[in-house]
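Notes for week 9. Today we move from apo structures to complexes. The key idea is that a small molecule is not decoration. When we ask for a structure prediction with zinc ion present, the ligand SMILES becomes part of the input, just like the chain. The input block below holds both the sequence and the ligand string. Read it once before you look at the output, and try to guess where the molecule might sit.
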Amino acid sequence: MKAAVLNAIPGELNIEDITIDKPGPGEVLIQTINAGLCHSDLHFMDGQWDRLPLPAVMGHESAGIVQAVGDGVDYVKAGDHVITCLSIFCGKCDFCLTGRPNLCQNNAATARPRGSASRLSRNGEAVGQFARLGGFAEEMLVHEHAVVKVRDDMPLDKAALIGCGVTTGVGAVFKTARIEPGSTVCVVGAGGIGLSAIQGARIAGAGRVIAVDISDAKLETAKICGATDVINGAKVDDVVGEVRELTGGGVDYAFEAIGRKETVEQVWKMSKMGGTSVVIGMMPFGQKIEITGYEIFMMEKTLKGSMMGSNSFRVDMPRYCDMYLDGRLLLDEMVSHTMGLDQINDGYELMRKGESARAVIDFSL
Ligand SMILES: [Zn+2]
Ligand SMILES: [Zn+2]
C-alpha cells in the first residue's frame, strides 16, 4: 500500500510502498478514505520536534472504513465507518478510570507484544506509525482503542478533521475551559484548531468572540465560524491593548492556537482578573514561556494546557459529528484544499506559508 514516509528530520515526506500486516488480537485494519494535514506532523518534518523513531508513516487525522478486525474485537466490524484518534486509551490506568483518558500513558497496553512483527514494514524492516496511527496511508492497522465508530451518513472527509484539529479546538472550549454562556473569549490563531475553538465558543454560547490572526482571509473564515470581532495582528501595534479595549479590561477565556512563546504570553496578558488562558498550540520542544508571578495569585489568573481537547473521544467525536450534521459545527468552510496523497508535500508547503485553513487528502484522487 502507498504511504507518506518520513525518513529524516528535518525532511520531506516520501510516497513509498509499505507492507501492512494482518490484524492481530485487539487490532483493526482500516481502509483510509481521508486524512487531514495537521500542523503537528510539520513540527517533525521541520525539525522543531525530533523525538520520533524513523522511518515512520506520518499522519494522525484520518477517517475510513473497517476492512477486518483481529481476535477479540467486538466494538467494530468490517464495513463500519470510523475516525481514528491519537488519544489511544488503555482503559485501566488512573487517568482512564478518572475521566481523563486523553492523558493515558500506558502505551504498552495497546501496542503489539515485544518481539512480535511490526504492524508496518519496508523490505522486511520495521516502519513506525506516527502517533501510533500512521494516517497518511491507504490502510491503517491500529489498536481498537484508537478508533471510534461514527454514523454512516457522516462524510468521511469532514469526519477526518474531527480526528484531531476539530476535537482539539472545540474540546479546549467545551472540556478544558468549560466556558460559561455569555463569557468573553479570544482565540489567537485562526488555522484549523483556532477556527474550531471559535466554533466551540459560539456553540457554547460565548458572548464576545474575538479572533486574532495575521491573515485577512483566515479572519474572514473566523467570522463565518462565529467570531464577533477580528484583529489582524500584523496591522495593529498592540493586540493585547485592542482586546482589552474591546472587552473593557480583558477576556474571561483566552486560547492560544499557534504554539509560539510570544502568542502564549499574549493570551496570558489579555485574560482578565480571574480569567483563564488555555494553551492549545504545540510549542517547540523545550520552549520556555515568561509570565508575571503576581498575576497568578493577586489576580487569580489560570494558565492551562489542553491536550487533544481533553477528549473522551468515543463519546465526544460522535457528538461533534451530530453537531456537523445538524448544522452547528461548520466543517465544509474549514477545508481549503483537497488533494491526492502524491501532493502531500505541496499541502504542507501551503501550511508553511499560512495559506491553508485545512488541506485534506482524498485517497481516491
Ligand atoms: Zn493534529
Ligand atoms: Zn490508560
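The longest strand covers residues 27-36.
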